[in-house]
Design a protein that fits this description.
The chain is mainly α. It has eleven helices and no strands.
């Protein structure tokens, strides 16, 4: 009471942290479905689009000065769960903050379900390229390449919250998070340049640091856009019902 901006910011941040706490172990449960891997299909899809993942990797690894920026950009996924609620809450963008929170939760649900139906391990194994070299380390990919096979064959059944990181390959949650955060920050005009650099960079870094196919990235972006639209529709429907419900209660 008296501090609505802080209330919106902290409640939204708590909701997002709780959704992450639930979604991360659920990604392991989804992987345990052990359906056929789709790596070859995703690689074919990339080639069908005319996109050369190996060429992209060679371009970046031949320019070591770019590599630290890719690591930083990939790590930007840690900002939205706390930074976006604080930004939108303190600037009074409550409606956008509510849509962002709901869109994030919807995105997490869809990506986990899709990863169970269309599992994959990632690009480095598919193309036979080392993921850990003196010039480049695919830190995001190394987690999933170790843990996805163990979850699928049943050798990993005890989960520790201290080490869980999430193992979704398709659709890329990193790509989805970049689109969600960029859309959220776009509501604050002076944040737009930073958001473009930060989350545009995260999209560029996701195929390499996370070992994602371009198909993963496009699918993640698509899921995020649909989640934003669904969140907007849901909030508009809820807002339209509030006066009707209040009037009915008053009449009763």
């Amino acid at each position: 009471r008296g501090y609505p901006r802080l209330a919106f910011a902290f409640v939204s941040s708590a909701q997002l942290e709780l959704s992450c706490l639930l979604a991360i172990p659920l990604s392991y449960v989804a992987a345990s479905a052990n359906l056929p891997l789709q790596d070859a299909a995703f690689a074919r899809f990339d080639r069908w689009l005319g996109l050369d993942w190996q060429g992209y990797y060679d371009f970046v690894s031949a320019r070591p000065a770019l590599v630290p920026y890719f690591y930083i950009a990939y790590a930007m996924i840690s900002l939205p769960t706390f930074g976006v609620p604080i930004l939108l809450g303190l600037t009074g963008n409550f409606a956008r903050l509510q849509r962002f929170t709901l869109a994030c939760i919807l995105t997490a649900v869809v990506t986990i379900l899709a990863s169970a139906l269309l599992p994959a391990i990632g690009t480095f194994q598919e193309y036979g390229i080392p993921a850990d070299t003196p010039t480049f380390t695919a830190s995001g990919y190394l987690v999933q390449v170790d843990e996805i096979p163990a979850v699928r064959n049943g050798s990993l059944r005890v989960l520790s919250f201290e080490t869980l990181t999430g193992i979704v390959t398709f659709p890329s949650f990193h790509a989805a998070a970049a689109v969600l955060a960029l859309w959220a920050c776009w509501g604050v005009w002076w944040m737009r340049p930073f958001a473009l650099m930060a989350y545009g960079g995260m999209l560029l870094a996701t195929p390499l640091v996370g070992g994602h196919y371009f198909a993963d990235v496009f699918a993640g972006c698509g899921v995020a856009v649909l989640a934003i639209m669904a969140a907007k529709f849901t909030r508009e429907r809820a807002s339209a019902r509030i006066p009707v419900m209040t009037q009915s209660a008053a009449t009763a």
